[in-house]
Design a protein that fits this description.
about 75% helix, about 0% strand, about 950 residues, rod-shaped
C-alpha cells in the first residue's frame, strides 16, 4: 500500500473518530469560532462523518492509523480514538478474512488490536467510551481464539457498564462462550439476561433460542420448551398468523427447525405426544401447534419409533380435528403405521381419517375443497383403500361384515366424490361387491347408475348388461306384487340397455327377451315396438331370435286387432319354422284366424264380397286350420244371404267334401237345400232335405219339415218313387202331429191313384181310416175329413159289388144276398156319416139314397119267373113294384134329407155336388116338386 493511500485512510479514520468523540458524552461539542489565524485552524475541531468513506479499504485505514500513532504525541483525544479505531479495524479485518476466506490477514493484526485496546483502557481508565473499547477487545479476543479472555472482558462489560448499548450483546457472547465450554448454568444466566432485555434488542431471538438449548442441556425440559415456544411465536407468527415456510429467511427456517427439534427431543424424553398435549394445555395452543406435533412425529420416525410417531401425528388431529393442518397430520400417522408395517393400525388410521374428515364433518363447515384440496385427495385415497381392502377381505373370507364394510366405503366414496373421474369404476366395483354378497337388487341399481348416469366410459356397456343379469338373479327371490314390479323394472332396464348400446353383442338377445317379457305382460303396443327393433337390428339376429320376435310381434298385432299385419307376421314365422316343427300347426291356426278376423271386420263394415274373399283365402293359406270350416261356412252364409246361389253352391259343396264330419255340416245341408231349391235343382234340394231329416240331432220339427219338403220336391220333380219313399218315411218317423201324417198318407193314396195302383191306393186310404180311428183324443177335423173321404173311397168297392148282384130266381135268396151287400154298404155309409164331415155326409147320404133307389130299380128289373103268363107277369110286376116302392120312398127321403142341407132354414146350409145330385134325382123322381131350376140358382149364391 502506498504511503499516500495509508495517509488517506488514517485521515478518514481520524475523521470518524472525531465524529465519535463529538457525539460522546465526555466530549461536549463547542461552537466554532471565526477562522482568522493558523493557530485558530489548528485548534479548530473537525466535524467528520461517524464512519470512514464507503470506498476506503480497512487494511489501508489501519496502516494509516498505525502511522498516526507512531508520530510524536499529539492531541490525546485523537490519539485515543486512533488507537480504538485501529483496534476495531484489525478486528473487522480478521472477521472479514475469516468470513470471506480472504487471505493476507495475520494474528499480528489482532494482537496489535488487543494491545491497542488494553493500552487504551490502561492509559485512560476513565475513558467515556470504555464500554465500546471493552466490547471491541472482547471481539478481538474471540477473533484471536482467546475465549476465556473474551469471557473475562465481556463479564467486565456486563458488570461495569449495565447501561451500555453493547451489554445485551455482551451477555449473549458470554452465553455463547459459556455454552461452548459446557458451562450451561452460567450460560443460562447469560442468555436469560439477553432475553430479559426483551424484543428491543437484536439478540432477543437468538437469546431465546440459546436459552432454550441451555435449559435443555440442564435437563430443564419444560423451561426450555417455554423459551423455544416464545422464539417460535416471534419467528413463525409475529402477527398472530403462521408464516409460510417460503416466507421465512434461511436463518429463520434453520432456527425454527432447530427449535422444533429441541422441543421434540425434550418431549421424546418425557411422554411424547401426551407431554406435548399437557404443555399446550398449560401454555395455550400456539397457531403453529401442528408444527410441534409434526416435528415430534418426525423425530420418532427418525428413531424408527413408528407407533409413537403415529401417535404424535394423530394427537394433534384428536386435539384440534377442525384445524386446517389436522388432516395432514392424521395422514402422516397413517404413513407412520405403513412404514412400521402395522397393517391393522393403518386400516384403523384410514378409517379414523375418513370418519373425522368426511364431507359434512365439522372440518368442512366453513371450507370448500378448494380451501383444502390435499385433504380431499387424502379422503378420497383412504376411502378407496378402505373399500378395496374390505372388498378383498370379503372375497377371501366371505364374511357378511366385510361385505358390509366394503359396501359402506364404496358408497362413501361415491357420496363424497360423485363427479370424480373414477366414480364410474367405483360404482361398478360396488355393484360387483353387491352381487358377490347376494344383494342382487341393489347391484342392479348400481350397475344401472354406472351405465347411464355418467358420460360414456369403459365400463358403460358392461355395467348395463351386468344390471340385466342382476335383475334376473333377484327376481326368483321375490314373490307377489314385489316380483311383478321387479320384473317390469328389469324390462325397462333391458330397453335402456338396448337403446344406449345398440352395437353391443348382446343387444339383439336383450331386445328379444324384452319383447317376450312385454308380451307376457300383455303390453302389446310396446311388444310390437320392441319386436320390430329386434327384426330391424343390424347385424341381424339369429334365426331363433327372429322367430321369437316375429312370433310375439304377430301375436301382439293380432291382439291389437291389426289382423292384416298379424297375417304377414305369422306367414313370416311360418317361413322361419323347420318343416317338422311342432309349432307349425299353431301358426297355421293363427294365420287362419288373422285372415278370418279380416273377413269379419269387412263383413261388419258391410263389404260382404270382400269378406267372402278373405274367408275363402283361409283354405288357400291355411288349408289344415280348424277355422277353415268356419271361414268357408261364413263365406257360404254371406253368399246365401246375398242370394248369390251360384257362388254359394260350390262353396257349400266344397265344405261338405273337405269337412264331412263337421258340426256345421247340417247347416251346410240346409243352405245347400235352399240354394238348390232357389236354382231350380229340386231333386238335389230334396236330397239335402232328406239328409236333414235323417239327422237324429236335429229337432223333430226341423226333421219333419225337411222330410216333408223333400217329399214335395221329389213330387214336383216327377220323382214319384222317391217322393213316395219320402212320404212313407215321414209317416213312419213322424206319426204325429196327426194332420201331417194323414196328409202324407193322402199323398201316397193320390200318387197310387195317379199311377193306377188301386191296391196301394186302398192301402193308404185304409191307413188313413185306421190312423184316425186309433187317434183317440188326438183326432182332428183334418183326420176325420180325410178318414171320411177315405171311407167313401173304401165304399166304392162294396157299392160296385152291390151293383153287380142281380136279383134272380129264386128272388128271396138273391134279394137276401143283395140286401146283405146293401146292409154292408149302408153300414159303411153310416160310419162315414159318423165323421160328421159335411162333404162326406152329403156324399154318403146321396150314396145311401142311391143304394135304395138302385135296390128298387134292381127289384123291378129282377128276373121273372119263366112260366108266367102275361097276367101273372103283370101281377108279378105289380108285386115287384110294391116291393120296390118302399126302397124308392126311402131313396126319396134320403135325397130330400140331403137337399134340405141346402135350405136356408137348414142347420148346415150346405150345397155341394152331392146335394146338387140329390136335387137332380128328385127332379126325376118328383118332377112336379123338384124340377125347378130357380130354386137352386137362387140358393147357391146365398151360401157363398
Amino acid at each position: 500500500m502506498t504511503r499516500n493511500r495509508r495517509l488517506l485512510l488514517i485521515h478518514c479514520a481520524l475523521l470518524a473518530c472525531a465524529a465519535v468523540f463529538v457525539s460522546s458524552p465526555g466530549f461536549a461539542a463547542k461552537k466554532p469560532k471565526p477562522t482568522g489565524t493558523l493557530k485558530d485552524l489548528i485548534d479548530k475541531e473537525v466535524d467528520v462523518p461517524p464512519q470512514p468513506p464507503a470506498k476506503a479499504e480497512p487494511t489501508q485505514a489501519a496502516q494509516e492509523y498505525r502511522r498516526f500513532l507512531e508520530r510524536p504525541a499529539g492531541d490525546p483525544k485523537l490519539r485515543i480514538e486512533a488507537m480504538r479505531r485501529l483496534g476495531d479495524l484489525n478486528v473487522q479485518n480478521d472477521e472479514a478474512a475469516r468470513g470471506d476466506q480472504i487471505a493476507g490477514m495475520t494474528p499480528i493484526e489482532l494482537h496489535e488490536a488487543i494491545k491497542l485496546y488494553q493500552g487504551l483502557l490502561t492509559a485512560y481508565p476513565n475513558y467515556a467510551r470504555a464500554d465500546a473499547v471493552i466490547y471491541q477487545l472482547a471481539r478481538a479476543y474471540e477473533a484471536d481464539s482467546q475465549p476465556q479472555e473474551a469471557l473475562t472482558v465481556l463479564t467486565r462489560l456486563t458488570r461495569d457498564f449495565p447501561q451500555s448499548r453493547w451489554v445485551a450483546e455482551a451477555h449473549f457472547r458470554r452465553g455463547e462462550i459459556l455454552f461452548s465450554n459446557s458451562r450451561y448454568a452460567e450460560a443460562e444466566q447469560a442468555y436469560k439476561a439477553v432475553v430479559d432485555f426483551g424484543p428491543a434488542t437484536s439478540y432477543y431471538d437468538q437469546g431465546l433460542y440459546k436459552h432454550g438449548w441451555t435449559l435443555f442441556k440442564l435437563a430443564r425440559g419444560d423451561d426450555s420448551v417455554t423459551s423455544f415456544v416464545k422464539l417460535l411465536d416471534r419467528v413463525l407468527a409475529p402477527q398472530g398468523k403462521v408464516k409460510g415456510r417460503d416466507a421465512l429467511t434461511r436463518p429463520e427456517r434453520e432456527i425454527t427447525d432447530d427449535a422444533m427439534r429441541a422441543i421434540s427431543i425434550t418431549l421424546l424424553d418425557l411422554e411424547g405426544a401426551e407431554s406435548l398435549d399437557a404443555l399446550l394445555a398449560k401454555i395455550g395452543d400456539p397457531v403453529y401447534a401442528y408444527m410441534l406435533y409434526n416435528s415430534l412425529g418426525d423425530l420418532y420416525l427418525e428413531k424408527e419409533r413408528y407407533q409413537d410417531a403415529a401417535k404424535a401425528f394423530e394427537a394433534y388431529a384428536k386435539r384440534r380435528p377442525d384445524d386446517r393442518y389436522a388432516p395432514s397430520l392424521q395422514a402422516r400417522a397413517i404413513g407412520a403405521y405403513e412404514k412400521g408395517g402395522f397393517g391393522s393400525l393403518v386400516l384403523q388410521g384410514k378409517q379414523a381419517f375418513v370418519e373425522r374428515y368426511a364431507f359434512g364433518s365439522a372440518f368442512w363447515a366453513k371450507r370448500t375443497v378448494q380451501d383444502a384440496p390435499e385433504v380431499a385427495d387424502q379422503l378420497k385415497a383412504n376411502l378407496k383403500d378402505l373399500a378395496q381392502y374390505y372388498h378383498a377381505q370379503a372375497q377371501k373370507n366371505k364374511k357378511a361384515e366385510d361385505y358390509a364394510a366394503a359396501t359402506r366405503w364404496y358408497r362413501a366414496m361415491l357420496t363424497s366424490f360423485p363427479k370424480d373421474a373414477a366414480a364410474p369404476e367405483t360404482r361398478f366395483l360396488l355393484a360387483e361387491l353387491l352381487v358377490e354378497s347376494g344383494h342382487f337388487g341393489e347391484a342392479a341399481q348400481e350397475y344401472e347408475r354406472t351405465a347411464y348416469e355418467y358420460p360414456p366410459h369403459a365400463r358403460s356397456s358392461q355395467a348395463g348388461y351386468a344390471a340385466l343379469l342382476a335383475y334376473n338373479k333377484q327376481e326368483p327371490l321375490l314373490n307377489g306384487d314385489a316380483r311383478g314390479k321387479w320384473h317390469k323394472q328389469g324390462i325397462e332396464s333391458s330397453l335402456m340397455f338396448a337403446t344406449s348400446f345398440p352395437d353391443h353383442a348382446e343387444t339383439g338377445a336383450v331386445l328379444t327377451k324384452a319383447a317376450e317379457s312385454l308380451f307376457e305382460l300383455k303390453d302389446f303396443d310396446r311388444t310390437i315396438e320392441v319386436a320390430n327393433l329386434v327384426l330391424q337390428h343390424k347385424p341381424a339376429v339369429n334365426a331363433q331370435r327372429q322367430r321369437v320376435a316375429t312370433s310375439v310381434l304377430a301375436h301382439s298385432l293380432f291382439d291389437r286387432n291389426r289382423f292384416a299385419e298379424a297375417e304377414a307376421a305369422y306367414l313370416q314365422v311360418q317361413r322361419l319354422l323347420p318343416p317338422n316343427d311342432p309349432e307349425r300347426a299353431a301358426i297355421v291356426e293363427r294365420i287362419a284366424a288373422s285372415i278370418y278376423k279380416q273377413g269379419e271386420a269387412k263383413q261388419a263394415a258391410g263389404d260382404g264380397n270382400a269378406a267372402v274373399t278373405d274367408f275363402l283365402r283361409v283354405a288357400t293359406l291355411a288349408p289344415t286350420s280348424k277355422v277353415r270350416a268356419n271361414a268357408e261356412f261364413d263365406a257360404a252364409t254371406l253368399l246365401v244371404n246375398a242370394n248369390q246361389w251360384e257362388r254359394a253352391i260350390p262353396v257349400l259343396e266344397q265344405f261338405r267334401q273337405a269337412h264331412p264330419n263337421h258340426e256345421l255340416l247340417p247347416d251346410v245341408t240346409r243352405k245347400l237345400a235352399v240354394a238348390y231349391q232357389e236354382t231350380g235343382r229340386g231333386a238335389l234340394a230334396a236330397e239335402e232335405f232328406e239328409r236333414i231329416a235323417a239327422r237324429k240331432e236335429e229337432p223333430l220339427d226341423v226333421r219333419r219339415a225337411a222330410l216333408w219338403q223333400a217329399a214335395e220336391l221329389f213330387t214336383k220333380g216327377n220323382s214319384g218313387t222317391r217322393a213316395a219313399r219320402a212320404y212313407a218315411s215321414y209317416i213312419e218317423q213322424f206319426p204325429t202331429p196327426l194332420n201331417a201324417a194323414m196328409d202324407a198318407r193322402q199323398h201316397l193314396a193320390d200318387m197310387a191313384l195317379a199311377s193306377h195302383d188301386p191296391v196301394t191306393r186302398m192301402k193308404w186310404l185304409l191307413e188313413i181310416i185306421r190312423a184316425d180311428q186309433f187317434a183317440g183324443g188326438n183326432r182332428t177335423d183334418r183326420s176325420r175329413y180325410l178318414a171320411a173321404k177315405a171311407t167313401l173311397v173304401e165304399i166304392e168297392a162294396p157299392v160296385a159289388n152291390f151293383k153287380t148282384i142281380k136279383i134272380v130266381i129264386p128272388l128271396a135268396k138273391s134279394i137276401k144276398t143283395k140286401k146283405a151287400a146293401m146292409d154292408e154298404v149302408l153300414k159303411m155309409y153310416s160310419h162315414a156319416l159318423d165323421y160328421q164331415v159335411a162333404e162326406v155326409t152329403t156324399a154318403a147320404t146321396y150314396g145311401m139314397a142311391e143304394l135304395y133307389r138302385q135296390l128298387a130299380a134292381d127289384v123291378i128289373a129282377s128276373e121273372r119267373p119263366k112260366k108266367l103268363d102275361a097276367e101273372a107277369l103283370e101281377q108279378y110286376d105289380v108285386l115287384l113294384e110294391e116291393q120296390a116302392f118302399p126302397f124308392e120312398e126311402q131313396a126319396i127321403k134320403l135325397h130330400q134329407a140331403n137337399t134340405q142341407r141346402a135350405s136356408s132354414n137348414g142347420a148346415d146350409g150346405i150345397y155341394d155336388e152331392w146335394v146338387q145330385r140329390s136335387f137332380d134325382i128328385l127332379a126325376k123322381l118328383l118332377p112336379a116338386r123338384y124340377a125347378k131350376s130357380e130354386v137352386g140358382e137362387d140358393y147357391v149364391p146365398t151360401l157363398r
